[in-house]
Structures
1.
Amino acid sequence: MKKNLVKTAAAAALLSSSILAFSPIAYGKTISVDQSINSVKSELNKAASQYVYPTLEGKLVPSESLYATLNSAKKNYQATRNAIVSSTLSAKEKESKLNDIDSFYNEKVSKGLVPYMDAYNYATKYLDPLMKEINDAEAKNDFATVVAGYHQLSYQLKDRTSILYRFSGKAARDLLLEKYKKPADAKRNELELPVTIYMKLVDLKGLYAAGKSEEVLKAYAELTILLEGLPKTNKYAGPLFAEVAKVKAIIDAPLVALKEQQTFDSKVADFVEKVNASQKNITLSSTASNSLVVTVKEDVSILEFLSQGFYTTLISGLNVTKINGNDPLSEAAMNGLKAAFSADAKTLADLKGKSFPFPLTVNTGSEFDVIFTIAFN
């Protein structure tokens, strides 16, 4: 009986001492704090190596398989910090050891394991699905979806992919970039010109529908330059060239008319400048297409005004080939010109406040018909 009591007492004492040995109060006395630090450092090293070493063999470790490692590392790191804080070490020693373990944790986990997992998640959950979406759309010849995917991909590559560079471990980083970012860059570069051409086509159609002829002409010129840079071997070259041909067939006539109008406007501007430099009794101006304003400075007869060179300069300066269907120097043209003015109008002063439209055919590289209005004030 006494022997049993002795054994029981001894076991209780041993159990009590074990519990005491692992309690925070006794930690610094019974178990070396340095041993604990070395132990957690070893674990942190192993945690980081779990994603680094496989990449040396060309394998990326899925982030899902690293969460248990991360949680264990966090837990034991925090436990070791608590042990240091509750130990009997001096305040200076505690600060030194805490700085040491914090620095090591920051290197292996905060700058290694965690950002690797973030980078892997980004690559597999954002970049990879986006690439698949674009490739699927290409297989279906769904260019509108390809364009939308291209814009999303461009945004990701410009503003988001810095996450792929934030973790330590060059081999792992290079492999992740090789597998996910490099193909994304290549796809973006491949699509950049075709998508730009497509967007320019959309803009051009919108401008044409809005009746903005000058903007259409400018957009078409830009589109032509872009097409020159698109290799015929590009998978989108055929469809894009065909679409441009369709658009060109629609806008060709308005574009030709616009070019002719621009050429004629330029001739009118040159004519105004030439007359203003040589005539003293009038000043010409033109603020709108197909019109001319004559400001009378010194009153002269209409006949004198026409015979002093205004009419012949007008004919030659604007390349007029016909007036109201007649040769501009023919008798029929002259009679039509006289008939345009009222019989009682003798001088330019009599024409003030009046406008006279003349049907002209001019040579702008081709025959261009226009109603040209001359106003007097």
2.
Amino acid sequence: MLPPTSFPQARSVKDLYASGGKGSLRYVFLHGNHARPSQPTDACIEGKVRLFNRRGEIVFDDDPARNSSHYRFAEGRCVSVNDQPEAYIPARMLVQTLLKNIQVPGLIVAEVPKDEGEVQPGQDDSFLYVAILVTGSSGVDSIPPQDGNYLDTMMRCLVPRFVVAISQRSDDYLPGDAKNLCHEIADSIMKVTEDSSDLLAFLDLYEKRYIHKPSTSPEAVLESCLLHIMKMPFELSSSIRYRLICY
């Protein structure tokens, strides 16, 4: 990798993320990775954007009646959502930039201060969590139906519980001893889950997709899933500096 001084001058993270909270924004991939924007400046990205509070409750959904929405871009800027011009998008600059920089398919969860989320008054959380799912993009082949089902299930069943668990350990949300952190998070998720049928359904999908060991316990499957997520958290300033995120 080239040293930072070899890169052209990066635009300020403040262009995307004004207040910063505890340093720069932190995010993780639950599926997929970064992808350099390759679509034309006029493009359509298929996906889903949800905003969660610290209790895992949805405080914004781009369209609750749809599994996915269509984000239309013109000259690199999102101009409509599901054909609604200038539709509301929480933390618009950040979200529209991440939509263009996520691999198809991909799912990301990012921690944002409440004022960046621009939610209605009354939300008492200092931080909110935006989940961005990308399942299609102009010029990219359609994903297999089983991938779409897997990611939709992950968004519904794992993301809210993950948000609750990670919000309680925000200061530990850094590279390091990921294995122990994942054990703590998995234990927390399994203990607080009253009706775990949907979570177990997701873990069954994950096990069949990645582990292929039917005797593995749900707790072990969840830890394996979380380790894949938590072993590499990202930080927005560094990602822009090293051109993982371009805009």
3.
Amino acid sequence: MSLGIDKNNHIIYEGYVLYGGRALFPAPHLFAIAIAETPEEALDQLKQSNHHNRLLFREDEFDPVSMVRRGRVYEPNGSQPTQCCVCPIGEVELSEAKRESSGVVRKQLFCYERYPLCVRVSSRQPFAAIGTDAGYSIWRIVSNDRTYFDEELVTMRPLYFLGAIPDLAPDNIPEPWRTKVQETVGKVVDSMYRANADSIVELCRHAASASLFAHFHEQITDLDKTDLGRLAKRAEEEGLRLVGACGKTVADLHSRIKPNMQMQHNLGSICDRDAELAVQCLSFILRDLGYTRSQ
């Protein structure tokens, strides 16, 4: 099955688009998509592709609770646009089709055919960047099933949950550490869809340290006690047990980045889920310290 998009009015057609394609009402949701083995590659491909040369994702199902997205992927077919014969819509086109004695009308369409994901991408669970430069999200393709019509139905989950870091309330952050907290948290937000897991954990450690130090700065005189592990312990001593636990979690995750720690304790390398955990821990620290707009 193929897709065609009318050059003039953007009506979407499905079927054997070059001859006999039928219009889809209501129109499906179509998104530009790029698929690669890493999030960085997928995002770069999305930004570098031209408007009509991009892959298209046709969303068939989206569950906002489980954040599961299902749909089909199409790629451009030949030169764009292409003259196609499609089934008529409305009385004017019906009259035209009768005059032609063919039952179809000619239109200029941007044509797309099914994208053979399993052939083009070697990774079993590749990443997908969906959207445009102005707004995009990163997803992991967790399964790829072939339908009866020989199309591939992909199932995706978000790499990181949207809105993981709440908006900061700068007035609630003590001076003179306000700028430092904003800067370090901003780097986490900017890197969530770009950096690898190690870098995200590293940035979360900096942001968590800055946030906790801003909270305890009047009580701390020894700069050697400003590392995240000691700040987390201080939080627990002050009754902020969950804040301390989150700080220790980020600190422990950061220690696993070091190759010597991995070898010494037989630990695996940091993965995407670890980075997501670090982001969620940082989010809790910020909220519990009262540094965010949403409490």
